[in-house]
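new request in #modeling-help
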Amino acid sequence: MKADAKAKLVVSEIQRFNMHDGPGIRTTVFLKGCSLRCQWCHNPETQNASPELLYYTKKCIACQACLVCENGVHSFADGVHHIDKSKCTACFECAAVCPASALEACGKAMTVEEICAEAEKDLAFYGEAGGITLSGGEPLFQPAAIDLLSYCKESGLNTAVDTCGYFPEDLLAPAVAATDLFLWDIKDTDDARHKQFTGVSNKTILENLKKADELGAKIKLRFILVNGVNSNEIHYEKCAELYRSLHNALKPEVIPYHAFGGVKSEFLLGKSNAKPEWIPTEDQIATFREYLGI
Amino acid sequence: MRFPSVNGIERPIRLSEAARRFALDSLAHKYGLETRKTPGVEFSPEETEGLTDLEKYDLAIKKIALEAPIRVCPGELVSGAATLGAAIDHKVPAFCDGKMLFWSVSHLTVDFETVVKKGVGYIEEQAKAALQKYQGTEREPFCRSALNCLTAFRLYHKRYLEALQEKPEYRGNYENLLRVPFSPSGSFYEGVQSIWFTFSFLRLCGNWPGIGRIDVLLGDLLKKDLEEGKLTLDEAREILAHLFIKGCEWICGGDYGSGDAQHYQNIVLSGTDENGLDVTNAVTYFVLDIIEETGISDFPVTVRLNQAADEKLLRRVAEVMRYGGGIVAVYNEELILRSLTEYGYPKSDAAKFSNDGCWEVQVPGKTYFSYHPFDSLLILQRETLKNYDGSVDFASFEELYSAYVKDLKTFLESLLPDKLNFKPSTPCTVVSLFEEGCLKKGLSYLEGGPIYNVYSPHIGGLADTVNFLYAVKKLVFDDKLVSFQELIGILAANWDGYDALRALAQNKYAYYGNDSDEVDSLCARLLNDFADGCDALNNRSGYIFPGGVSTFGRQLQWSKQRKACAHGRKAGEVLAANASPTPGSDRIGATAIIRSYCKCGLKRLPTGAALDIKLLPSLVKGEEGLDALVSLMRGFVTLGGFFMQPDIVDVSVLMDAQRAPENYQNLSVRVSGWNARFVTLNKEWQDMIIEQNESGR
């Protein structure tokens, strides 16, 4: 398939000089939109596919420039900035005039070639290993991600996709064809719990994984470990089976839950989704790793 | 027995227990404090009465050679020591009636190549020839002084031989010191002893020379010894380690401003020779092994890299960098060689480049070097903008820019007048012996003796001047948010009452260090104009006048005289260091900083421009961390950088980032598979990351 260079994607952020989203130095493109609603999501600002307003309390200097908003999103009482997100139409006029960058538009439509050009800025640093990583959100939530991957591949960039595995089946083959490495997150092998904590069944995710493997995809599994949710040995064993079932898998990783997403949900929703009791113990991490043989 | 590292990684053990103990003692100030007890030799006024300065100097050197305490450390493999404390303070350690006689010399790397390959005896022959040539001329006294100083060197040598001969356990040292440094070195062990003994005598006389390309100096000798089975690799490493350990003999602890390890004893590794062949050898790796194991930071090491640099070398350099402290830095020699040859240095000399002991590039053993650092931001504020008195106005950015460049060039001219002509100055015969040209011309190091005489203006505050000009361009001329006069008024008021505009100036524009072509091209333009200004003055008074970029620590002292800046900074803030971005204005990360820096047209700055890059220990952890460091270095070379010093940041920096987050916008941290900007995290999480980094996880 010839990539459409002009296809547009909604991007929440492009981070350069990342070392932990695949091999080498990488540029990570965070794409908006995800079908899952994981309760522990660490990038909540990327769940919604459409652009939205972020507010960084710490940066606000209460200058009231944001009162340009005609919908009454912003108000000030006793010098304190109040925001009513329900009135926001995502026009971002307030963000444009906010001198302190306390208000920020999260989500910008960019063309495939614009995104690729951004990633190519660090070409000199990629060497053999580095390149572009699509993350999110679920990168394959936006079908134009296929154009982006193919276009990057054609431009000679190494491509990685950080996926939750939940995406339409018809995207699978073209995605595998244009992706050098999948970082494949596994939240839970128990479907009931999966539904409870992510809002969707894991059936599609596991089927997609199997098919991707059959198509020859190189996959690094990343197991999310959440204390009290999936911290049990039945799950560990099933994960180990999953890992062993793949034909072209790199050594998997255990990703212990951390509460940093809480900070971001504060910016987005005004309240934290952090649950410190979810942080797994060192012992739990070690046991899980033992099951995986890593 | 452990050598600490900032990130908690255990250092490997390769050296003997005895060498490690010796290193720990020396690092723990044992010899430094001892040295402080004997500041220098003493004269009575009668002894120096009626003598010329040069004659006084010769007498001082002789007295130093005869009276300086002899120090032989337990178990040392190489001998010689600089045991007079005033030398640590950059003085010739000789006093008349309690008063210092002469300052000494630094910022040069002397000609150790002649010392190792031909021996100091060769220099004696040259000195004799010089005396014959210049007898009866005004240059005769210098030639006599040269011979006097060489005689003193012989006396000092003899005292060590006698001291070693008395102790049977130092038989090996004694035999090794018999021939060198006066004869050519015939073995690796002699080579190390020859360099150290000459270095220690130079330092004993107060001077602070760099050592330069130690792998080039010793590589062939080691190869021969290994082939002949005279030495094993471990034995050779152990010998070289003793040079490093002995080099810690001036560490005294305490607060010395810029640190007590700053005696410019720089070492340069790897790179190519004049035929373009890679010089890397086992000695290159020994140096990296030694600093990896001991963490000795007293010999700052710079590695000459090029596109063809061996992956093995890069990985080794990255491994050693990871221990932190910024001990190992890198040059991109391809750019530097082009810069030097295009500036007029012959290829054969350019290929030898080393530095002044810091990072300013020079041809070792042939160069008088001095540099004049100045604050370019102050010129903008004081000269072009008349201290914001409202008396100047500019109708366009081009008008402002031209006025500034004119003021900059006027300043450069002011450095030049006749005061720069060579004149009889402080005696400095000892270093002059090791600088090619001095004996040939019969002139000392400070009198124009060396082949190249460099006076290098160094532009400081570069990023801030560029950002300031750029902010004026945007605020006044492009976006028309304020008039020029209004802005000057706001700056005169130190932004008071203009918080919103100040926030806008700080947040809405991409400044130098963010890989933004618009501002980076302004930086390149300014440096190009600066280089033009330097070129116009080249050779106007016997000095070559190549430019460079530096501040070293001067941004601290300069901060006091600086006023508010258009890029949102208030008066008195500590601003950019060297060629690095204004603190807090770089928001993207290391690769963007390197890209901005490499766009500056660095080739026209023959003495150099230094870029400091700060990285967190957790970011360079494991194999992928090594890959990242290697990739950063490769990118730096590919993009055409000059000098880069990656520093693995200590936890204390994170704590400082908590206190002053505005200065650490780009500091990213790793948290289990996820990178976050440290300053955007709340206190609780920041504390956790600090804790993680403290425990080195």
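bot summary: The longest helix of chain A spans residues 233-245.
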